[in-house]
Amino acid sequence: MFVFLSNNLSNTNLTSYYERIVFLYSLSELAIYPVKSIQGIALQSSRVDDAGLCGDRRYTLVTPNGELVTGRTHPQLTLITAKALEDHCWQLSHPSTQTSLILDLTKYAQEYSEIVVWENTVNAQRTSDEADAWFSKIAGESVHLMHFGEHSQRFTKRRPDVPMGFADGYPFLLTTEASLSELNRTCAQHIQMAQFRPNIVIRGNSAFEEDRWKRIRIGDVEFENIKPCVRCIFTTLNPQTAERIPKGEPLKTLGKFRLLDGKGITFGANLIALNTGIIHIGDEVEILEYQEAEKYQDRRK
């Protein structure tokens, strides 16, 4: 979306023409996922730290052998909701159980063990037997809830100096309303933004314009676009029911126009933060630097 500051464009060159346009990009949604794979929590504002939005993906589930357990193989986990009680505390609920679970990181022992988060070995903090039992009942098998504690460390692959928690690959995931609208224009099923589990959603741009953004500023915080986000089967879960969406959507449709050779099907952008600060819904989004976008072939009819 944009507005003209002047209607008199005669005798102006292309550069001055664009200087007369104010692009109205803004932050429309913020979300965190305290435990990896559970439902997101919509926020009005959030602190941006180097490792992600405050409270985002600081817990994860693993098998007794330390292997990751997510909604990809255990869809029922995606129906867990979280409610913030106070600093350091979450109340978790699931429709299959009448008992909620309280997570309070101040009560965890300083007991750490190695787990595997995709390609990374992470020294993660044990939580409690109560949490393990609660999640095991929902998962249908023995699992352990692990916390990203003060002695835990993990870094991004392309920027080994940038810390992160239990997010898949990078601390921040950005999507845009316009790109979702373009997907839904030709998709046989209606796709919700929640299926992509973003932290940051932008409005006001054109569809997939985010491919060309290299650096952006939201409020007082600058972000760098590291790479397009490659999507997986997790996106095919209905966020309200945890059931698979018919015909493998949205991956089937995205595969026709968002297939990146040798990498996979993409939607959204993986970001890192270049400084810390607070961002708010409605904050202006400024594009500071552009880049050449990846090339995609549109095979939709």
List strands and helices in order, with pairings:
Blueprint: E1 2-4, H1 14-19, E2 21-23, E3 26-32, E4 41-42, E5 45-49, E6 52-53, E7 59-62, E8 68-69, E9 81-86, E10 89-94, E11 97-104, E12 112-117, E13 120-126, H2 129-139, E14 144-147, E15 172-176, H3 177-186, E16 200-203, E17 213-218, E18 221-230, H4 251-257, E19 259-260, E20 264-273, E21 277-280, E22 285-290
Parallel strand pairs: 15-16
Antiparallel strand pairs: 1-2, 3-4, 3-16, 5-6, 5-21, 7-8, 7-14, 9-10, 10-11, 12-13, 13-14, 15-20, 17-18, 17-22, 18-20, 19-20
What characteristics describe this protein?
about 300 residues, mainly beta, M1 Pyruvate Kinase, Domain 3, 2 domains, nine-stranded mixed sheet, five-stranded antiparallel sheet, globular, disordered N terminus, MoCF_Sase_C, MOCOS_middle, Pyrv_Knase-like_insert_dom_sf, pyridoxal phosphate binding
